[in-house]
Amino acid sequence: MLDWIFKNKTKKQINLAHLGIDIHSHILPGIDDGVETIEEAVAMAAKMRDLGYTHVVTTPHIIWDCYKNTPEIISSKLDEVKTAVRAAGLDIVIGAAAEYFIDEHFMQMLINRETLLTLPGNRLLVELPYSTPLLNLAETLFSIIEFGYQPVLAHPERYTYFHSDLPMYRKLSDQGCELQVNILSLTGYYGDNISKIAEWLLRNDLITFIGTDAHKIQHLNMIQQSDRHKWVSTYPFQNEKLVGLW
After folding, report:
1. CA distance 166 to 178
2. Which reaction does it catalyse (predicted)?
3. What does the pLDDT average to over 166-183?
4. How is residue 63 annotated by DSSP?
5. Residue 87 contacts by C-beta under 8 Å, 6 or more apart in sequence?
6. E-assigned strands of 105-170?
7. End-to-end alpha-carbon separation of the chain, Å?
8. Closest alpha carbon to 197 in 147, 240, 224, 158
9. What are phi and psi of 118, to 5 degrees?
């Protein structure tokens, strides 16, 4: 009798196998604000496999004021992680792109046609300032597209200056920018207001991809243990199609 009661009180853990691929995380050790050790990286890869992912494109920050990552630095760290993941016997494919902060350095790399690390389908994952809006955002997105990339805006729900200008999200989408919501936003991790905006974006069919944006194992544990799974299981995210473009 008691076993039946406790069994029914157990939360159903989330399964993300239908997504196939995570396109936003920070699991290369020691190069940004993500994991610090190779052991943490392997633990993150194992947890992602437990969640159902078969592929991960991890995306270390490139913010020139604080994280001066280059393709060479990222590639070297990726090789270390892939070797450790193979040694651990984990059945998961790991690659790397980057999360580019749109600043003067990014624009110079774009204009100079330097090597940029992309998600499948020549997609560039970009992020904006959190405190103040980028004045030339429309022109910047146009430039990214003009140079042959598909912009993907990371966690648009977290830019609070858009919350009082909801039509801006539609404008971004209409300009050709794909939007990527964080699973953590839907769990309430960043607060109820951001969670509400994330759900508004989903209700209005403005989101293309979903990502963990996991920086540490606790983020993945929170995703796994959350009981707020409705949108993750019902919304037509396009993650899976990127596996075929790998």
Report:
1. 16
2. O-phospho-L-tyrosyl-[protein] + H2O = L-tyrosyl-[protein] + phosphate
3. 97
4. B
5. none
6. 123-127, 150-154
7. 50
8. 158
9. -115, 155
